[in-house]
DNA sequence: GCTTGACCCTCTAGTTGCTACAGGGTGCAT
DNA sequence: ATGCACCCTGTAGCAACTAGAGGGTCAAGC
């Protein structure tokens, strides 16, 4: 099964530009070319790109994806490194959730304190102003 | 009270580079200069920069901060616009929290399914692989 | 009065992860 | 043969800074 970049893109929910970008930064190997100099992809590339996209959806950075790809190629290796990478990412996500939740509370309190009127007496602006 | 950029930075928890950046994008007006061509700031700038930093800490974008600053200058105006801006931002934060929470659940499940061993049998790698 | 060190200046380029052109070539159907 | 959808390369842009090069300024200490 041979695909053009557009077909591969549709199969993985990725824009052609993004695929070319992944190639440029070395996340995808340079594929073969057709007579008209079109990139041509097969099953292997489909699998690799799916992996990348899935990991991205889970919020892994491109650097983390790169590491995961490398680790996944070495099937005999202990998977503790993979585990650590995923746990590190989870911790990061949890920290972000905590930060945003604190933010949410502050914003909600600020908004609740505003009872209309003019900017001059607005509690939201006041809350942002000099302490 | 006259300050150099470094002093203003310390007072507001902002790096000098960031202050110059804010000036470049028009968030802070160009300040006066000392004999040696140093930027010199007073109370007004301290207030404005504090406002900016506080809003940034609450996750408002620079464009939103710009709008808030403009609104705050017109004390007689109805504060409904301010309120709407803040509510919009809160909604955005809440959406992000929901997204991250979904992510967190997926990551945690993935990690829980991994019971050690080699990469070849690693459930994390498997979960990322082709469906 | 001269040096040392901390500070300041401008300007440019890098970060992350794409996205959007501009200015072309290819391939297939009509 | 001509239109249209697709492909190619290369560059520039987004947010919100951050870091560095290559200089100038100022106060203190000797």
In a nutshell, what does this entry contain?
The structure is a homodimer of 131-residue chains. Chain A is mainly alpha-helical and 131 residues long.
What does this structure look like?
- Helix content of chain A is 64%, strand content 3%.
- Chain A has a two-stranded antiparallel ribbon.
- With 131 residues, chain A is mainly α.
- The longest helix of chain A has 34 residues, at 80-113.
- In chain A, a hairpin with a 5-residue loop joins strand 1 (32-33) and strand 2 (39-40).
- Chain A has 2 domains: 1-77, Multidrug-efflux Transporter Regulator, Chain: A, Domain 2, CATH 1.10.1660.10; 78-131.
- In chain A, helix 3 (43-57) crosses helix 4.
- Chain A contains 6 helices and 2 strands, in the order H-H-E-E-H-H-H-H.
- The radius of gyration of chain A is 23 Å and the shape is elongated.
- The model of chain A has no long low-confidence stretch (mean pLDDT 94).
- Chain A binds a DNA duplex (30 and 30 nucleotides) through residues 4-6, 15-18, 20-21, 25, 34-39, 56, 61-63.
């Amino acid at each position: 099964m041979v695909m053009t970049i557009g077909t591969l893109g549709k199969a993985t929910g990725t824009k052609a530009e993004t695929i070319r970008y992944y190639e440029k930064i070395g996340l995808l190997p340079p594929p073969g070319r057709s007579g008209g100099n079109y990139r041509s992809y097969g099953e292997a590339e489909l699998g690799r790109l799916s992996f990348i996209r899935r990991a991205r959806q889970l919020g892994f950075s491109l650097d983390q994806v790169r590491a995961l790809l490398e680790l996944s190629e070495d099937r005999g290796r202990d998977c503790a490194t993979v585990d650590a990478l995923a746990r590190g990412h989870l911790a990061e996500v949890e920290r972000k959730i905590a930060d945003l939740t604190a933010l949410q509370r502050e914003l909600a309190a600020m908004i609740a304190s505003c009872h209309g009127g003019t900017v001059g007496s607005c509690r939201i602006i006041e809350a942002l102003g000099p302490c």
